[in-house]
Amino acid sequence: MMKKLLCIISFFILIYNNGNAQSATYRYFPDSSMWRVDYFVHNPFQNYYFWDSYFHYYINGDTVISAKQYKKIYRSYLYITHINVHPLYPSPQSQPPCYLGALRDDSVADKTFFVYDGTNTDSLLLDYNLQPGDTVKGIAGKYFTCPKTVNAVDSVLIDGNYHRRWILDSCINYGSFYCHPYIIEGIGSSSGLIDAICDYANDFTDRYLVCAKKGEEILFESGYISEFGCNLIVEGIEEPTQANLIHFSNPNVAEISIKSDFYLQNASLALFNSSGGKVLQMNQLFGKSFFVARNNLPAGIYFLQMNQNNRVVSAAKIIFVD
What does pTM read for this prediction? Predict the structure, then answer.
């Protein structure tokens, strides 16, 4: 009986160790990685400013710093749009691509480091030794006024391999909309790559990872809905010039007054929440102006899509606040 019990215990120990070994294998950032990221800057107070930024990070080549091998990280063309800035502030401008620094995987330390351009000193990017109850350190948790705590550790299947994932405390971003941040080994975080996690309270900026790619292959999609999807952001993007533009203000409390540059004829309008769920539908729209009532929608960011003659004629982001 004792021998049988020992065999059963040994069997479960073997399963446990194999499972841990599978999920604990260090996963490096691929050499041809790309990360699509959106920034939403929203300061709703007296000296307000609002704009959206779209870009991607990418790896292009290697470099040696202090006898250690690094991957060079660049930021693409930074496209800034949806600008609404108080007269006291200058209007932000889109920026050309630039070199940001270099990334180094350290499988022995079980960490990833980053060296910013102009320095040769490692900064902790991601620490894979974190356990439930630990506080996120390094670049991902750089704002100590809003500490991020690990709630749980599990793994996700990416490209046929299990990558460790750290699920963090939920936090509140613009419009009191709850988000659920995370870190994934070899991918980055819910905010991007070298981006602070869930720090709207510090700089009025919400940061969202859209996807991560290896070459042309999509490794990971966050589920966040972006106007540009998982596409590269390249110089030459221009604001739409066709007549089918709509105009409205952000943020809004009870309703939105929308004006169109073209005459609507039996158009329809759909409003989606940040998870992609349709929360409002309006049909048989005619004319050049109309109202969209908030009804009981919670505060947060929504995406508006207008259709006419079975095609999308306008799309925009709507913000409701309390």
Answer: 0.69
